[in-house]
Design goal:
Oligomer: heterodimer
Radius of gyration of chain A: 18 Å
Strand order of the largest sheet of chain A: 4-1-5-10-9-6-7-8
CATH architecture of chain B: 3-Layer(aba) Sandwich
Order of helices and strands of chain B: EHHEEEHEHEHEHEHHEHEHEH
Largest sheet of chain B: 8 strands, parallel
Number of helices of chain B: 11
Shape of chain A: globular
Distance between the termini of chain B: 63 Å
Strand content of chain A: 15-25%
CATH topology of chain B: Arginase, Chain A
Strand content of chain B: 15-25%
Number of strands of chain B: 11
Shape of chain B: globular
Helix content of chain A: 25-40%
Order of helices and strands of chain A: EHEEEHEHEHEHEHHEHEH
Number of domains of chain A: 1
CATH class of chain B: Alpha Beta
Radius of gyration of chain B: 20 Å
CATH topology of chain A: Arginase, Chain A
CATH superfamily of chain A: Ureohydrolase domain
CATH class of chain A: Alpha Beta
CATH architecture of chain A: 3-Layer(aba) Sandwich
Distance between the termini of chain A: 44 Å
Number of helices of chain A: 9
Chain lengths: 331, 349
């Protein structure tokens, strides 16, 4: 009889980090649920984020066997963190959510429903974009299920990104696109703009967005701030602000927060972002805090034949979810 | 001393198509060729990048014009025929730039493309339009047909050079409007009779519903296998006959994926059977000579997918061949004349 066994990273059919493809009925409290949102028709820069979920899943396979089928614990040499093998049902890949590329309203509803369903069953939703617009429906879905009818609760928001995405209305793209997602989130009733923090913004932005950020009391740490203060201090402050009076923190990670030297596989070409090591350190720190959902967006694997971008993205998910998934803790 | 502009090499300058002057819609008039772009690709089911098509096709046209402009005598000679080609006087070719698109608002985009192509057709100019994914053909056709109707056109034929039928009615993901449905939407317009609709080059797997529709409604299809057997000359002659029968003109839609993917990889679909570039160029020449074509579009050119850049050059060459009677002055080359004169001298009395 044919016996299934370990496979090398380039072989096999499986979900993120070799997790099984799952149904919502399989989701139990504490499970990390991977949800693909391969939508990029609201992307104004170079295309390919629709291949993000597939690319990030594929890039995670090289660590899949190590994390899921290894013989014992793993140790992160940089931090001394110990990783235990996750229990059954703790990491589930829900596959991709339905998208209708020419119908942003239906796509919004679909992503919102998928994330809400996963959250309602106690899952920790990790939504893989897609362009950054999907952050808005993913946030809506999370807040629908997390807050329910209790709209007095507050959700803090951290966006790691080279950009604000605080556009209100754009002549070409209208109100819904990958430059307005954070603005739309700021309008959600359970969000207090005083709990919104950006890490890594750089370059130029429209005056209107800058004034909105300043006027509404949003906090932002630029790429330069990260270099001056260090990522640990920046994330410490960010968590304090986003966690102040909130019941949960939502993390939105745009891979273009990383300097294009290291992560070219994304629409925007940015030369003032953070380093990969800073990104992973931030994931460790945020993952250990009261973060309850994340999205990871703008990974366009087709733009990076070296595959470094997708690998870094998959590592970011592993680092952020490590405390839940692997019981990872500093010794 | 005043700065002196000069001819530029193909890689330099701000590209309009074939270095044509920029023009506005209100400058268009009968006899002019109006090039315009429709850089829309959010109705695309396959690999992305055709939003860069208009820019790419413009770039693909520059080497030829540079070759003509930079020469001391401003002409080139077609080696096979010995025909001397120089730019026709009066510069009938203009580039009106790209039409506005709103990538996540299909209704606005459709309206914009429709209005632009309608304005051009109404003026009497010949619209030559670059996509964009193949969906753009629907609004462009709509606009052209409305503009031509204002000029007395009652019936319009349609020839689609394409590896696909694009006859989808409704799709669970894309709905009724995307790059697999535009030919079906065109067939529903009152100015078109399906008996005047022709497909050249479609192959591969197609939903049965589309094939049934084609048979039922009387459209005509030549697969690449048919073309290899019957020859491109015969097929294009018949296509022109069928599309122009009882009509006041023909709209030609060229999806670059009608060409074998080995020759033109810069497009969303990966095509393993199709026309050779030479066959496409020949077809374009025949369409030009027929005099029945009232508008041309070229779609699905995705420059980012072809780092060799040959797809944009094949597309530009096809357009230039189609425009050749209008933009070139052709005369037998002087060497050819000398030779025939010598042959006359030598001829026995």
């Amino acid at each position: 009889m044919h016996q299934r066994s370990h496979q090398p990273s380039f072989a096999g059919v499986s979900g993120f980090l070799r997790s099984p493809l799952a149904d919502y009925a399989d989701v139990g409290p504490g499970a990390v649920t991977i949800l693909g949102a391969p939508h990029d028709t609201t992307c104004s820069s170079r295309q390919g984020a629709r291949f993000g979920p597939t690319g990030i899943r594929a890039a995670s396979q090289y660590l899949g066997d190590l994390f899921r089928r290894g013989d014992g614990d793993l140790v992160d040499l940089a931090t001394g963190q110990v990783f235990h093998r996750p229990g059954a049902g703790m990491l589930l890949d829900m596959g991709d959510l339905p998208v209708q590329p020419t119908d942003v309203v239906r796509t919004t509803a679909s992503i919102r429903e998928g994330v809400a369903e996963s959250t309602a069953r106690g899952g920790f939703p990790v939504t893989l974009g897609g362009d950054h617009y999907i952050s808005y429906p993913a946030f809506l879905g999370f807040s629908d299920a997390f807050c329910g009818s209790n709209r007095d609760q507050r959700i803090g928001f951290i966006q790691m990104d080279s950009h604000f995405d605080l556009g209100d209305i754009n002549l070409v793209w209208g109100r819904y696109w990958h430059g307005s997602n954070a603005r739309r989130i700021s309008e959600v009733d359970v969000v207090n703009p005083a709990n919104m923090v950006w890490i890594g913004v750089n370059g130029v932005t429209r005056g209107e967005q800058y004034e909105f950020a300043k006027g509404m009391g949003l906090t932002f740490f630029t790429g330069e701030d990260v270099r001056q203060l260090g990522i640990v201090e920046v994330v410490r402050r960010a968590l304090e602000i986003a966690g102040n009076g909130t019941e949960a923190i939502y993390l939105s990670l745009d891979i273009d927060v990383v300097d294009a030297l290291f992560a070219p596989g994304t629409g925007a070409v940015v030369w003032g972002g953070i380093r990969p090591a800073d990104l992973l350190a931030a994931m460790d720190l945020i993952g250990a805090a009261n973060v309850r959902a994340m999205d990871l967006v703008e990974v366009a694997p087709n733009l990076d034949p070296t595959e470094a971008t997708a690998r870094l993205a998959s590592l970011a998910v592993i680092h952020l979810t490590a405390p839940r998934l692997f019981g990872a803790r500093r010794p | 001393m005043a700065y002196q502009r000069d001819a530029l090499p193909g890689f330099a300058g701000i590209p309009t198509f074939f270095r044509a002057p920029r023009a506005e819609f209100d400058q268009l008039e009968s006899g002019v060729v109006a090039v315009m772009g429709a850089p829309h690709d959010s109705t695309l089911g396959s690999r992305q990048g055709t939003r860069y098509g208009p820019r790419g096709i413009r770039e693909g046209s520059l080497e030829t014009i540079a070759y003509i402009e930079a020469g001391p005598e401003k002409f080139v000679t077609h080696i096979a025929s010995g025909t001397r080609m120089s730019l026709a006087p009066g510069a009938p070719l203009v580039d009106v730039g790209d039409l506005p698109v709103y990538p996540n608002d299909l209704d606005r985009t459709r309206e914009s493309l429709r209005r632009g192509s309608c304005l051009a057709a109404t003026s009497g100019a010949l619209p030559v339009m670059f996509g964009g994914d193949h969906y753009v053909t629907f609004p462009l056709f709509q606009g052209v047909s409305e503009g031509l109707a204002a000029r007395g056109v009652k019936r319009l034929g349609y020839i689609q050079f394409d590896n696909h039928l694009d006859l989808s009615d409704d799709n669970r993901i894309w709905g009724k409007h995307y790059h697999g449905s535009q030919a079906r939407r065109i067939s529903e317009l009152p100015i078109v009779d399906a008996h005047n609709m022709v497909w050249v080059g479609a192959s591969g797997y197609t939903p049965r519903e589309q094939v049934d529709w084609l048979r039922r409604s009387g459209g005509t299809l030549w697969t690449p296998t048919d073309i290899h057997r019957e020859g491109i000359t015969h097929v294009v002659n018949r296509a022109i006959e069928i599309a122009s029968h009882g009509t006041d003109g023909v709209y030609v839609s060229l999806d670059i994926d009608v060409v074998n993917g080995g020759a033109s990889p810069g497009t969303g679909s990966v095509v393993t059977d199709g026309l050779s570039p030479q066959e496409l160029i020949q077809a374009m020449g025949m369409l030009a000579a027929s005099g029945v074509v009232r508008a041309l579009d070229v779609t699905e050119v995705a420059p980012p997918l072809d780092p060799s850049e040959r797809t944009i050059r094949i597309a530009a060459s096809a357009v230039l061949e189609f425009l050749s009677p209008k933009i070139y002055l052709r005369e037998p080359h002087v060497v050819e004349r000398l030779r025939s004169a010598k042959e006359t001298e030598r001829a026995p009395a």
